[in-house]
Amino acid sequence: MSTHTTFVAVGDSFTEGMSDELPDGTCRGWADLVAARLAQDTPGFRYANLAVRGKLVGQIVDEQVGLAADMRPDLASFAGGMNDVMRPGCDIDRVLGRIDEAAARLTEGSGKLLMFRVIDPTRRMRSSARLLPRITKLIDGVDAAAERHGAVVVDLFSQRVFDSPALWAEDRIHLNAEGHRRVAEAVLCALGADPAFDWNATVPPAPPLPWTLRAKAELRWARTHVVPWIGRRLTGRSSGDNRPPKRPQLSPLQD
Q: Which of 20, 105, 191, 194 would be 180's cystine partner, CB 3.0–4.6 Å?
């Protein structure tokens, strides 16, 4: 694996690390785990994470990409698009144009760029099947931008391991700690690191719940997560409104 002395991550909740929470309530996530691994053998390693939950691709490009490029890291990552895809009025062609803009800007200012083929939600959440045409276009656009700008693509879409509910938080939208751990390992392998474990290993299924408990869980999920999400969409709000990035500057990792 090549030595990287600086790493800047941009994106939304996926890169912020939402639902991989530390005891103090802050988020960790795959990018923090990757940074920790890169820092092990690199004296003076520095890391910034500009990602903020709820951000659309246009917001990521306008608010984060320029700042990241100006830091001139030797490794940058860009992940985004699912928040756009989930919105009824999504202009997917405009989204893809902004992704290409981000890739161009980040490769101008960094040594290597990581991009992602998003995780496929359709086998895990049947209601998301209607989004598959947009998701497919999103993936094709990421592949095209990566080819044009020489980025490394981490393919999460084709990996069936992420179908397992055991890798997802209670909201069913964000990865939990184990999910983020597996994404971090996939990233490190894409960068050429020796595997520390088989991140794609099958997760044993949990014992089925009685239908009464399943029904209660569905109601709790709808009340706790779906209704507030719909409320934010109807009022034009986002979970990331007025939320600053957790690591706005390149800085050493703390022990």
A: 20
